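Minutes, project check-in

Agenda point 3 was the complex the collaborators sent over. CS summarized: two entities, 613 residues total, and the question is how they sit relative to each other. Sequences were read into the notes so everyone works from the same version.
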Amino acid sequence: MKFITFVLLAFISVKSYAVTVTISDLDQQTVANVVAWLTPLQASENKARTNQSFTMSQKDRQFTPHVLVVEQNAEVEFPNLDSIMHHVYSFSKSKAFELKLYREQPQAPITFDQAGVVELGCNIHDWMLGYIVVVDSPFYGITNEQGQFSFDVPPGEYTLSVWHEGFGDISSTESQTVTVSDTDFNYQLKQKVTPRIAIGVDEFDEY
Amino acid sequence: MNIRVVLGFALLAVVSNATAQVKGLLQVGAIKGDSYATWQEGGVGLYRYDTDTDGIVLTQGLIDFRADITSGWSAHGVINAYQDPEPTLGFSQVYLQYKPLTSSKYKWHVRAGGFYPLLSLENPDMGWISPYNYTNSAINSWIGEEVRTLGVEATIKRPGRSFNSKHSFAFVGATFKGNDPAGTLLAWRGFAMHDRQTTLNEEVAFAAVASLDTPQLQFQANQVLPFEEIDGRFGYYAGVHWDYLKKSQFRFYYYDNNGDPAAVNYSTGQYAWDTRFASAAWLYKFNAKTRLITQVMSGSTAMGDTRGVDNRFYSHFVLLSHKMASHRLSIRYDYFEVTDKDDWAFDPNASHGEGVTATWRYQLSPQWQLGIEGSALHSQVDNRAAMDIAEKVSQQQISLNAQWRF
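CS then shared the predicted structure for the full assembly.
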């Protein structure tokens, strides 16, 4: 049994690499909160990540997380953790919807069946802003404070796509073909990234 | 008059099937009032309570509801219960709001009905009460008793975040009927300091001012119906809100009830007053715990076909509030004055004063809050002499409050 496990593990480790991508801006500074995903150039039997449940909460009158990445056809719950009501909506092309005023959990999760960027707002709290990035690949993530993110992907040719909320056109992405082998790689953004504006609010700012 | 209450309840009935959010609050206080009788009982005291009300009283009782009729339309109302000066139940606000979902980065909404112009940064809690001091500033005590919009208000917002800016703006414009007698209390009582909001069909008493016995003022009642329509003219106001990251919040409003001072309703004893004012309010958060709130108001009010009563009024306050875990400490200084500009020497309207109010609140649980407040003020009101009362008066009020909300 141990032997079989060993062989299986060895097989898997040969099949995919943990590669780290570092994303920097025009000034060579690393950028956090960049959404990155790899799409294979040759169609393969990409298995969607299964049994993943996604949530975009509303907590302390903000969307939490601020940016959520999900795979196409994922279902996302929108629990309201505040004691007040929210009225969440999106006018984005890839998914337009409205969750009428609610407390706690709205009726059903929402399925995001088209790849693209979904911008979320709340009709009661103008300052609330959040994003759901729907990608057509199981290989995705968000860069950390060091501007890095690690993928666990099989070697091959891929399209690397990146998105940041500070892009001039919020619905556009940047992409480039990359070859994944056993080495890490860097990507430099082709546009200026506007810094994110964080608004601290409390219970009396609604008035 | 009572049609507003009927309309309010009718509105409640219409929307009872829609998604509703009902919040409420009960606040009971143990009061040590001042020896000068409150204006509510026809006295010259500028606090809500006096020695006659010493003991346990219902200081606030309110239900604040919001019902969503469609995605854009909602109905709002606040019902207040008071036991002073008489047990009453009424709406202080009742209005419909239309706030459509729009893909534009600019957002807009319209309110129609009876509501407050949002010029105060002191009263953001449910039912327009203050989370800082129990006793409101002189400015907002007056707004709560004599100012209300009975009309239509439109707001266009430019939320900064949608424009990648740290600055957010809102532009407000409104037109309204009613609110013609606003200014009456400032002329014959002066500013006061309290948290007693006038409900839409209520009248507010004031002291038996001697000049009301003269031929010139014989038609004026010894009370004000602040939201009455008298001259048939529309009033208006305009405001701008400017926020920097919500760390700094600034609001400027200009209000003009466009009252015709010659218009009078003989049956209710109410005049239309030509009342206009500018108000600037600023809130600044030094950090998440400590904030400064300040407001300045300056205006004028006049009544009578020869503008026989013609006054300027001015007030400002500075409020510092600090929150430590479940404790909130708030201290406020108020200055207020009314200047008499007319030549009716038999009707002196000048008054001025200042006050200091310190409040400590302790949040026991999300539902329960305890608090203690001490307030002191001194005032000079020129018309007191003719009532055989000292023109200069010093007053104090202490209250212990228990608040329960749902």
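Noted in discussion: The interface with chain B takes residues 83, 85, 87, 89, 91, 98, 100-103, 121, 123, 126-127, 129, 166, 194, 197-202, 204-207 of chain A (CB under 8 Å).
Follow-up: revisit at the next meeting once the mutant set is ready.
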